[in-house]
Amino acid sequence: QAEGRSSRGSVQGSPVRSSKTMAPKKAEKVAKAVKTAVSRKQKKIRTKVRFHRPKTLTKARDPKYPRRSVESRAKVDKYSIIQCPVTTESAMKKIEEINTLVF
């Protein structure tokens, strides 16, 4: 035997729980169980053919930082319109005669 240890592995002098101290508690638990009725889990009655996943909480986005460094500007501004005027026959006539661009 190695330095004060018993064959069970616990150090000598430490309190070991015996079956005699646990018996009253176990008896009370059994008595309580005997008094109550046996309850069985009821099966959920399904009324629909298809199973839909339950709708869970969806929170609004709250980003920590912007995903794009610079906001995108409007594609069509006053300069881009001038770059591409309408070039139909009637529009060309207005350009030539009245000196007016058509967009």
Descriptive report:
This protein has 103 residues and is an all-alpha fold. The chain contains three helices and no strands. The protein has helices at 19-35, 78-83, 89-97.
Radius of gyration: 43 Å
The major pleated sheet works out as: none
Helix and strand pattern: HHH
Individual helix count? 3
User: What is the number of strand segments?
Assistant: 0
* Percentage of residues in strands: under 5%
End-to-end C-alpha gap: 104 Å
Average of the residue pLDDT scores: 79
Q: Looking at the structure, what is the overall shape?
A: rod-shaped
The helicity comes to 25-40%
Architecture blueprint of SSEs:
Layout: H1 19-35, H2 78-83, H3 89-97
Outline of this structure?
The protein has 103 residues and is mostly helical. The protein is 31% helix and 0% strand. The chain has three helices and no strands.
Spell out the key features of this protein:
103 residues, mainly alpha
